[in-house]
Structure formats: C-alpha cells, structure tokens
Amino acid sequence: MSRGKVIVTGGCGYIGSHTTVELINNEFEVVIFDDLSNSKEFIIDRIYQITGVKPIFEKVDLSNPIEADMVYKKHSDAHSIINFAAFKAVGESVEKPIMYYKNNLYTLINSIEAQKKYEIKNFIFSSSATVYGNPDILPITEKFQTKRAFSPYGNGKKIAEEILEDFNKAFSNFKTISLRYFNPIGAHESGLIGELPNGVPNNLLPYVTQCAAGVLKELQVFGDDYNTKDGTPIRDYIHVVDLAKAHVKALERMILDNMEDNYEVYNLGTGKGVTVMDVINTFEMVTNKKINYKITHRRKGDVQALYASSEKAKNNLDWEAQLSLKDMIETSWNWEKSYRCI
Ligand code: UD1
User: 335 to each of 138, 278, 306, 331, how far by Cα in Å?
Assistant: First the structure.
C-alpha cells in the first residue's frame, strides 16, 4: 500500500536520486520535479532498474513562478515536498551571485508558496554544514550559532533556513525539517546512480575518482599546513545512501506528528573527522590505484576542520550513519567505472 505522494525537487540529481530510491523502497509514491540543468533524465530509468518502480517525472524550472504553480497544482495531492533543486558549485556562486540567489531562493519561495496554497503539509530542506562557518569547537551541534558563509551558495542556504523558520512561525499547520549535510560522497551499491559533476569537479572525491579513471591528470591537495595530524583539512564524509535514509526518517517524524516544534534542524554526518590524506590513502588501498597528487596552496574559503555531532538525529530521527569510509570510496569508484565503462 502506498504511503502517499512525495514531491522530490531535483530528484534526478545526486542526493535527490538516492533519496528517491529510499522513498520508493519505503512505499512512498515519488514525483520528481527537475529542470535537468545539472542532471540527466536517464537517472529515472536507473531508479526503475534499482527499485522496479518508475517515478513520475515533470521537467520544470521551479524558479519560474508560473511553471512552478502549474506542476504543484497538478500534484497537489502530495503530502510532502523534499527540496533538493539548487545550483551547488561554490566557486561559480562567488562569480555569479545573482544567478545563485535567484535560482536557489526563487525555487524555494515558489515551492513554499505552492505548499501553502495547495496545503502540502511537510517540507524537507537540503541544507549544509556550511551554515556553521569556521567553528572554534568540535563536534558541531545544532545549538551552534549559524554564520554568514563565505560563498553566495552557502549564504543562500543560511537565508533559506531563515525564510523557512519565518514561514513556519507564521503558519503553524505546516512542518519543516532542514537537514544540514556534512560532506556527502559514495554512490548506490548497484553502480547505477552516483554523482555526475558538471565539468571539472570542485569536490574532493569526484576529483579523486576522475584522476584514477585517467580523466584528470593530477589532484591538487589544497594545503598541508593546517593544524591537523598530517596538515590537511578534516571533514566529516558521509555516505549518500545513509544521507538518503535520513530523509525517510525525517519524513516519518513529520507524518507521525512527532515533532517538538514545527521547524527543526538536524546535522547529518558520521561524527568522524577524516583528513584529505586519509581519503587519498584509503582510496589507494581500496582500489589498488595510485593517485597522482601535488600539495599546493590553501583554497580560499576552506576551513581547517568540520565534523558533526549527530546525536540529535540519533535521538529524534532514530538515524545513524552505518557505512564506512571504505564503503563510500568503493561505491564511488564502482560508479565512476560503470559510468565510464572502464
Ligand atoms: C564544499 C563547500 C560546501 C558545500 C560542499 C558540498 C567550500 C568552501 N565548501 O565543502 O559549502 O556544501 O562542498 O559538498 O567550497 N580538496 C582538495 N583538492 C580538491 C578538492 C578538495 O584538497 O581538488 C580538499 C579541500 O581543501 C577540503 C576537502 O578536500 O579540505 C573537501 O573539499 P570539498 O569536497 O570541496 O568539500 P568542502 O570544501 O568541505
């Protein structure tokens, strides 16, 4: 029996497609809204190959209020929206702030306007650990003050959270959960879906896998003069399948009416800090492939160390990351190989 309709915006993207798989596995009916600006339609067939169910697909630019209203009206029988649709290249957002604020915030505002109009009760927002800036104390809990992020991409996440908080203060019959992701990596174990960066990747792991695949020549390690065990920065890498499962748990919390407040935020990480060199060394060990890398200068905007306390998610969502760094790297490499037919 279906547990009802869930709209997944950006459902053809990296985290959206993995979440769609988990929603279908948990008997939800999924409708994907995506403009395919940074994703491919073949992902829908891959989701079908994994789950045996083909989600409904609407190609739509949600930053356009008329288009957005039309699709939300068509699917107004949904009980929930999970919002992934956003541009995500941090460096590009610094060069093109208007494009980023316009796309990411118009999409959000048009979606919550439709949510209100069509009484779609629940909303999950895909946020980021970037809202914490450069914290002095670790691990990071949800009680930490959010800060203005270095990039328009990151600052847009902070602004979006504030908009959602205000929306939920004004309209108490709606519920929202913002999920603050640490560093999502990995891919589905089938090798059928994974991260598909547009052009040269900005993030560490797709860069590493593309180097190993021979697509890129050399990885630059951005600085080894940080105050960490090997001098390279620490992050909390989390498997995208664990992350996807957290969305199902958050949805269940809303549906079961278990929320303490109608706006809640959760960190999603493993709680384990891993350096860039740990990632490279584990990759080489797991895959038996050498990574050609060079230590260079620090990247502007990078912080020394970030890792989460996910205690709140454990207590309230009954969720904990299960998969290891080895699993993350194995599945990422498997996906890279299957995508490139290596
Ligand atoms: C970045 C964004 C963050 C966003 C997240 C999405 C910045 C400052 N932050 O996080 O806002 O939510 O991606 O996944 O851009 N590294 C290298 N060489 C590379 C690439 C990365 O050494 O070619 C290092 C970085 O210095 C960093 C670590 O790898 O220490 C992880 O980098 P990355 O994957 O880009 O993620 P974040 O910077 O943590």
Answer: 32, 21, 26, 6
Q: Each residue of 152-193: pLDDT tens digit?
A: 999 999 999 999 999 999 999 999 999 999 999 999 999 999
Closest CA to 191 of 204, 203, 207, 209: 209
User: How high is the pLDDT of residue 36?
Assistant: 97
Q: What's the gap in Å between 68 CA and the centre of ligand 1?
A: 32
Query: Which fold does the domain 5-186+237-270 belong to in CATH?
Result: Rossmann fold (3.40.50)
CB-hemisphere CA count at 13 Å for 178? 21
| Tokens found for residue 191 | 């090798």
pLDDT tens profile 293-327: 999 999 998 999 999 999 999 999 999 999 999 99
Nearest residue (CA) to ligand 1, atom 11:
130
Q: What is the pLDDT of residues 280-294, one digit of tens each?
A: 999 999 999 999 999
Q: DSSP characters for 31-66? A: EEEE--SSS-THHHHHHHHHHS---EEEE--TTSHH
Residue for token pair 């930490």: 144
Kindly name the residue from 153, 181, 237, 266 that is annotated as catalytic: 153
Find the 119 Cα to ligand 1 centroid distance in Å. Answer: 37
**Does the C-beta of 270 come closer than 6 Å to ligand 1?**
no
Structure confidence at residue 341 as a pLDDT band (50, 70, 90): confident
CA–CA separation, 325 and 87 (whole Å): 26
* Residue 324 to residue 47: CA distance in whole angstroms: 24
Q: Establish whether 153 is a catalytic residue.
A: yes
